[in-house]
Design brief:
cell membrane, two-stranded antiparallel sheet, kinase, binds adenosine-5'-diphosphate, transmembrane, EC 2.7.11.1
Amino acid sequence: SYSELEQATGKFSDEHLIGIGGTSKVYRGQLSDAKVVAVKKLRPLGGEDEDLEFLSEVELLSRLNHCHVVPLLGYCLESQSRQLERLLVFEFMANGNLRDCLDLKGRKPMDWATRVGVALGAARGLEYPHEAAAPRILHRDIKSTNILLDDQFRAKITDLGMAKCLMNDGVTSCSSSPARMLGTFGYFAPEYAIVGKASLKSDVFSFGVVILELITGRQPIHHHRPPAAAGESLVMWAAPRLRDSRLVVTEMPDPAMQGRFPEEEMQIMAHLARECLQWEPESRPTMSEVVQILSTIAPRKA
Ligand code: ADP
């Protein structure tokens, strides 16, 4: 119930705040049985069918059951002082999101084997809704802050809240409501930015950006930049709404790890990223193919 979760998170106090997302705040909570969980408190939208939308999101999330997808443990939909409160309770991921783990912040840089393991885990977590769910499900907002790491640095995909079931033609178009165009600049595919066409292959594009992030340690996103410097390749797209946007992708290895990545494996990863970032959706690999390639370089236990 709401009051139970309120208590578990110290009344949603800042002390318990572990993340702020586009649509929510996420708190660490301890349930009465001592289990630690992540409580995602969605920002009220005030829409008419807010409760129905929420319940269909819950329904979708609870159908997903995979070791590389952050499991939904419960939810709460309750009116509190005339406001509809929507809470989602997830398994707590001790190492937070991948982006924060790549930013050093005094920690030692993530070693190569961990990076490859994270790439493979996340790839499996995305392959699952793409291939195993019926109907197939698109994520639509793959990025490093939506890949969470548990205490063993096992990667799990989260934030499938805006995921969409795929239509029969394999493409979902959201241009009917451009105001609700979802996704994150720097990650979404050109065809999605330009004509609002999302497909399994637009998720693959976003995943390619994440692979480069794992290699370079940096968020490979810069707007309006002059031609690429050495070691950078440029993915350019002229999106009307994003005027002359460029995605500058650095392929230079994480400076914190200079010389400590195995060259051959790194080249395989960089090549895979380039394949995922192809302009034409059809030229990009499927997530199953991505998983297969990553398995050839990942350590056995992963
Ligand atoms: P939004 O959907 O509003 O963008 P997210 O689901 O992306 O919110 O969560 C925002 C941040 O909160 C994440 O990047 C992560 O740092 C943190 N977070 C979310 N879920 C968990 C979890 N289960 N365990 C630990 N941290 C989490």
